[in-house]
Amino acid sequence: MIDKFRDLLASSYGVSLSNVSDIVILLMGIVLLLILIVSIFALGVQIYLAIKYHKYNKKKNSLDMTGCDVARKILDDNGLEKIKVKSSGSILFGNSYSHFFKKVRLRRLTWKKASVASLAMAAQKSSLAILDKENDPDMKTRIKLTPFIYFGPLLFIPLIIVGIIIDFLILKSDSMTFTIACTVIGLLFYLIAFVMSLKILKTEIKAQNKAYEILKDNDMVTDEELVMLKQLFKLYNIEYVNNMIISLLELIYRILEIIATIQQNNN
């Protein structure tokens, strides 16, 4: 099995890995296999979530209120009149709350639609704004480290390129010292983003629970709709956990790549 992994990895990298230890090769192969398995499961969850979202977005909510109206009501009732409610067609932002722009964003599919899905998204994202107002400790940490969460991992490839330029074009060295150093820095950004992903999930679940509470206390949801909301949020949470697992596996794989590179160059 190890020889098969070694040949497969060598062909994908285009270089010999004969000097890399068996344990590193084995771990790299196992991690790649796990990434494949989790990715397939994640794809299944995404498809099922899309089906549920589409179904609930076609079902009219009992309030006959659009997502925009629901968000506006919840925000105003909680003294957050200054928070704007805007539509978003953005893949990056989608349904979200921004502390920095004081804005609740709802996708165009739900913004002006009086559906169960609109009710769910509007209530949950507005609840994030309420957590912010209440100075929830997890929400405060999430806000402070938001730039690391979204942009930290994007620096990985540019950092490697910088290391390669310094090593091969400026210093004209084959030691790859700066390449490895920049890669390690990139991995640290990945690690910070992963840790903060746990904080994001925690605040999202807190906001979901607050949304249930607000909707029930104000008679804004039927028991049937509440079940639908919980099903929808559960799928979102599973999808988020799947993405976190994949990110962690990718982080482990990149660390193994560094070890393999060092072993190959030093032997």
How would you characterize the overall build of this protein?
The model has no long low-confidence stretch (mean pLDDT about 85). The chain is elongated and about 70 Å long. It has one domain. The longest helix has about 45 residues, at about 225-265. It has ten helices and three strands; from the N terminus they run H-H-H-E-E-E-H-H-H-H-H-H-H. Helix 2 (about 20-60) packs antiparallel against helix 10 (about 225-265), helix 5 crosses helix 10 (about 225-265) and helix 9 packs antiparallel against helix 10 (about 225-265). The chain has helices spanning about 1-15, 20-60, 65-75, 110, 115-135, 135-145, 145-150, 155-170, 175-215, 225-265; strands at about 85-90, 95-100, 105. The protein starts with a helix and ends with a helix. With about 270 residues, the chain is mainly alpha-helical. It has a three-stranded mixed beta sheet. About 75% of the residues lie in helices and about 5% in strands.
